[in-house]
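Quick note —
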Amino acid sequence: MRRNLFLLPLIGLALIFLAGCPKPEVYYSISGTIRPYSGESEFVIQRAEGFVPVVAPEDIARGYTGEFVVIFERGYDSLVLGASAEILDEFASRDGSLSFSVVRTENPELLKKIEGVRSIESNRVFTLQTEPLFPDDPLYGDQWGYPMIEMPLAWNIVKGSPTVVVAVVDSGARLDHPDLQGIFLPGYDFTENDSDPTDNPRSGKQSHGTHVTGTIAAVTDNSLGVAGMTWGQFPSIIPVKVFDNNGSTTESIIAQGIVYAVEHGARIINMSFAGPDTPVVKAAINYAFEHGVLMIAAAGNYNTSNPYYPASYEEVISVSAVGPTMLKASYSNYGNGIDFAAPGGDSKVGGEAGTIKSTGYTASLGNSYTYLAGTSMASPHVAGLAALLMAKGYAGRDEFGEEIIKKILRETALDLGEPGWDEYYGYGLVQAYAALFNAPSIAERRPFVIQALSPGGTVLASAEVREDGSFSLEGLTANHIKLRVWRDVNGSGQVDKGDLLGFAGLNDWTPSFEEAALLSFFSSGEKELSDPIYFSPVIE
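Predicted structure written out below.
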């Protein structure tokens, strides 16, 4: 008994000693991938039963339809119209800042006087900007525009990234084209109001959207067809169909497509079409700009200095076209709004071989490869290069409000025409290798980062996400963490409108820290996440 009493103090001292010692720390790393969240399988807009937007030949001739577009002030919608108009189509942005309807009315002037109505106008017509030729056998050697803008050298630096989502707002695309497999995220058809954006051009017409898409992202180095600017390695293209199978559309449909692209994660929007200046398209452009989306558009094919839109909006990069001789294409628009030139082709100085070759489709030949020319073909060259720059971490605007990517393109373009900026080539012909090689000395980077956060939200560790969407966080010791991926697009240092954001364990358009999965680790070593971390745009 006395012996046991003697041991009690020793046992107590041992317990005190053990309690005062810190427990052994774990040292581990986490690897994984990030991918864009593709969203709900269905996206339904409010459209009157049986109404399908149709542009008649007489509408094209006069430039507008017999319908009207009513834009509402924030907080108002079509209910304020009452029985004074027939509502055909309704659309609103996710944050409620843009709301409009397409209506039929005998007295549009009366609608202007209703409280909550910002504007009313005829629903005007837009057209695709191509000069079509015939399909032919695919050969990379036919893509003369790529060497002209230094693509072979540029591909030694970067070939694309799944973290950069590009929306092709166009006539849709052939999702079954063998040279476009694996590149598409879910898209939408605003002409038929369904989730199938497949282009089905009528007999005698070609798939404009498929051609544009191929320039940006045709699968490359696959012993098939043509090359794409971003090599088509990842699902990163949102096909947004806003032109019907006859190649026609209206401003209201275009505006819906632009807003959809923004809210479904696009960081770059290509718009290879042209039309008039309209309030609803301008409102959609403003919405995209406010959310940090880079927009590129075709200058137009009318060989005029008159402004066409959306290219002539200040928020949009306007692209004119050059042919194989590096001279302005015979059809290309010019003027004060031109920012850059890119290969668009010109059959007048090179025949079929002087035009742009890309993926194509016709009703008679099916999936094929097509020669086309137009500022429609020039625009995706710039969009593809922008995607490569964004893959290297360049995004948002600088302290003076200029798009960082536009600044890089401006300072590295090949000057053509009159020295400096001119009305035919803007700042010059875009140069991919010069842009990517010199970007670090021109602009700050805003890359995607992966962050380990404490349960209270403190950043414990951070690393850049690689171009292929993979990541690795090293030297972690905390037992409980949350993982966040974030691109600070506007460089504000805080998560806000226009940024890209995601958390481990969440698939949602509006990911939140509170709902993110709490990950727990109690052993050292390398840990790999079984599922990607999905990211989506921050919409206020």
